[in-house]
Please model this.
Amino acid sequence: KQEVTQIPAALSVPEGENLVLNCSFTDSAIYNLQWFRQDPGKGLTSLLLIQSSQREQTSGRLNASLDKSSGRSTLYIAASQPGDSATYLCAVRVQGAQKLVFGQGTRLTINP
Amino acid sequence: GAVVSQHPSWVICKSGTSVKIECRSLDFQATTMFWYRQFPKQSLMLMATSNEGSKATYEQGVEKDKFLINHASLTLSTLTVTSAHPEDSSFYICSAPGPGGSLAGLYNEQFFGPGTRLTVL
Model:
């Protein structure tokens, strides 16, 4: 059974810092991995999607990497801003299925 | 990206009543949609897979008679919480895979609705 873990559960940093969020999964037989952002009481916004054959994806100040063999992904946020404050969730799509398995999320707070 | 909407965004109901939540793909067709629930400060848990034209597939431990799912068309799936009780209070979110023929569809990127907050008194 696929399990996804995110560390840390919460993170608070001053504005301007670069930071890394971690995601690990137990079964390397994944189809893809997605990073999402969730603001309080809101739905999910897709940030980046990495296919199992890819090593990384970039969008603006965000960079996500994937090491499928070790079951790890990282989300790198450069030059953090207060508007980046949210919960970040990673999810993997298991091979042979369409459903996603989510991690518990990292609650990020960027202090002005 | 593809847009998924949900209605209502929030609902308060009395214990014992039924509540219907709609999930729509606004600018694309979705033969499959997914329903999740999220408890406060917890992650999303998949409840069921909604299939257009056939029965929904429920995850282990989810009562199919309590959470009725109907995928009425290629753009609409509904979740009905029957005989709701306070423990059913939660945030319900639906998602749909990106449309076929698009890059999102090719990569099977999933798009989520804004969620529905259900409070059962």
Q: What stands out?
A: The mean pLDDT of chain A is 94. Chain A touches chain B at residues 31-32, 34, 36, 41-46, 49, 51, 89, 91, 93, 98-105 (CB under 8 Å). Residues 28 and 69 of chain A are 6 Å apart (CA to CA).
